[in-house]
Design a protein that fits this description.
six-stranded parallel β-sheet, globular, alpha/beta
């Protein structure tokens, strides 16, 4: 029998986003494979369901908030190392997720610390940091040059290699983000009273990257008869509602807000649409295919083209192309429902991570 490993996953919190869902999926996969898996968060912000088998520990960094950001990781890392050893024991593998955690774990002295890179770093930085992009890029390069990185798609790996440059000593490989097919299908059976069946659905946070405005405009041009449903919240939600009102679509477009369990809505949909400017992988596409729901996506820099065939993709900045793909997919959703590649299943990812 293989040695039982002690695995720790570190992330800022467990909000209802894609990376946070992946952390829980991986932790449950490690436990099911006979290993010990724990999650360490910096904030007690938990929106997602967590299996009883996965302990969650909160390491509060409030006492360090006064520190300048450029030294915060150096100072906090020894404290979190001691915290993990005391509460969980010496880990065999540590997986750090997203920048608040990565900024600290870059300076950890625990063994086998790896970053999981969930997005195309260059696109993400350009989208969120305009005035101070140069300093932010320099900080990221310093961080991600310190530990090995696991990229969630081949596109993310290509982007990270280009970002770090030929002189980087970092070891980089790709392990696709996984889905838990049995859990997703089980959760999709939960009864909901506000499901709008046979709709076009978008699931995601209302932020610049996700470009819900693009979908609203394409939907308007297409004159589609099926309702359009949005699940999610975020700072750009009011603008999306304003656009719907401006285009006189209020009777056809529904904003359902955040849903801890979006799967019954995805299962009941006619078509799921992802219309982002950039993605890491596009977890919602995998979730739709798991439930047998048709899916189309922008052919952005990385992710969707590794999940969907070319006929399911539209040019990212071409509204006319999006309208045509949207029309064809709503008319014949079965043709736009490819089988889920087994490489995206939880068991496959767990095997690859255990090699680390």
């Amino acid at each position: 029998m293989a040695k039982k490993r002690n695995i720790v996953l570190v992330i800022n919190d467990l909000k209802g986003n894609g990376a946070e869902r992946v952390v829980i999926t991986l932790a449950s996969g490690f436990c099911e494979a006979g290993h010990s898996a724990s999650i360490v968060c910096f904030k007690r912000f938990i929106e997602l369901p967590i299996p009883d088998s996965i302990p969650v520990f909160i390491f509060s960094g409030n006492r360090f908030r006064w520190l300048p950001r450029f030294i915060r990781g150096i100072v906090i890392a020894p404290w979190i190392d001691r915290f993990i050893k005391k509460e969980i024991g010496s880990p065999d593998l540590v997986l750090s997720n997203l920048i608040p955690a990565d900024r600290i774990m870059a300076y950890s002295r625990l063994p086998k610390v790896h970053f999981i890179i969930h997005n195309t770093l260059s696109s993400e930085m350009k989208s969120y940091f305009t005035g101070k992009l140069k300093s932010e890029l320099a900080e990221r390069k310093k961080i991600y040059d310190r530990k090995p990185s696991i990229c969630v798609s081949r596109g993310v790996e290509k982007d990270l290699r280009e970002f770090l440059g030929d002189g980087s000593r970092n070891k980089i490989k790709t392990i696709p983000n996984p889905v838990d097919e049995y859990l997703i299908r089980d959760m999709a059976e939960e009864k909901k009273t506000d499901i709008i069946s046979d709709a076009i659905i978008h699931v995601g946070k209302f932020k610049e990257q996700k470009r819900q405005d693009r979908l609203i405009r394409a939907y308007h041009i297409s004159k589609c008869s099926y309702p359009l449903v949005f699940i999610g919240q975020g700072e750009l939600l009011p603008k999306a509602k304003e656009l719907v009102k401006e285009l006189n679509l209020e009777s056809k477009v529904y904003f359902l807000g955040f849903r801890k369990n979006p799967y019954p809505y995805i299962k009941a949909a006619r078509l799921l649409v992802l219309c982002s400017d950039f993605e890491g992988l596009g977890m919602v596409l995998l979730e739709a295919l798991t439930l047998g729901t048709a899916a189309i996506s922008s052919n952005c820099q990385s992710g969707p083209s590794e999940v969907l065939p070319s006929m399911n993709l539209f040019k990212t900045d071409d509204i006319d192309d999006m309208v045509q793909v949207l029309k064809r997919a709503t008319e014949n959703p079965i043709s736009y429902t490819p089988p889920l590649n087994r490489n995206f299943l939880k068991q496959s990812a767990v095997r690859k991570y255990l090699v680390l």
